[in-house]
């Protein structure tokens, strides 16, 4: 979302659009982070599922990224997130999720500290054509102790593997959910977020019982 100064001033005068206003019934808000390697579909997921116009920080890729960003498998990609994506979705009348999408490249990981502050959990998007780009992301989440679910984005030419095989390749504990996802589809993306909410509820119940 790119505004010049006059557009920003006009937007402030008008105030928020009706569809952007938080529902009066909302009583709880949860911060969720969407993470994954470069080009796995994070911006697409936030954009497809957000009930408000998403904020994106997409910039055209330049020569500065050559030799730094790994574009193997996504050579046709011409833009990249340089700060974050932001969206919002109401799970029900009371619960609202604020979605923060992170940049995928390692050179932007210094932003993670701020984006993860206060986050209840994360969705890790993976591309089965390039599973290796997810390894460092998963490792950083585990180091931070952030609960997460894994969503396998359904790219048209991506190979499909059994869940058990994916779990082994990603070295994930049995309890961590792995779900299919089409990041372009609102219902599919919403199902992923619901899976995360159920998983977080299970973890909270387990902790209370112990």
TrEMBL record:
Keyword NAD annotated: no
InterPro entries on file: Gliding_Motility_GTPase, Gpn, P-loop_NTPase
Keyword Hydrolase tagged: yes
Keywords attached to this entry: GTP-binding, Hydrolase, Nucleotide-binding
Pfam families: ATP_bind_1
Source organism superkingdom: Bacteria
Family per similarity comment: Belongs to the GPN-loop GTPase family.
Full protein name: ATP/GTP-binding protein
Species, as recorded: Streptomyces chengmaiensis
């Amino acid at each position: 979302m790119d505004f010049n100064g006059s557009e920003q001033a006009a937007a402030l005068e008008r105030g928020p659009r009706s569809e952007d206003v938080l529902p009066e019934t909302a009583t709880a808000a949860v911060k969720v982070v969407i993470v994954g390697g470069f080009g796995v579909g994070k911006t697409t997921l936030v954009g497809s599922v957000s009930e408000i116009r998403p904020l994106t920080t997409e910039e055209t890729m330049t020569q500065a990224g050559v030799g730094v960003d790994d574009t193997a498998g996504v050579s046709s990609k011409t833009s990249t997130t340089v700060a974050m994506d932001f969206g919002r979705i109401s799970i029900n009348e009371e619960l609202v999720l604020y979605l923060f999408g992170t940049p995928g490249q390692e050179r932007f990981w210094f932003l993670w500290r701020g984006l993860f502050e206060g986050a209840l959990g994360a969705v890790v998007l993976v591309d089965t054509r390039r599973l290796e780009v997810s390894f460092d992301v998963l490792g950083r989440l585990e180091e931070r102790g952030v609960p997460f679910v894994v969503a396998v984005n359904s790219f048209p030419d991506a190979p499909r593997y059994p869940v058990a095989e994916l779990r082994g390749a990603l070295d994930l504990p049995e309890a961590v959910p792995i779900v299919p996802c089409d990041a372009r589809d609102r219902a599919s993306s919403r199902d992923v977020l619901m899976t995360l909410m159920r998983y977080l509820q299970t973890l909270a119940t387990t902790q209370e019982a112990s």
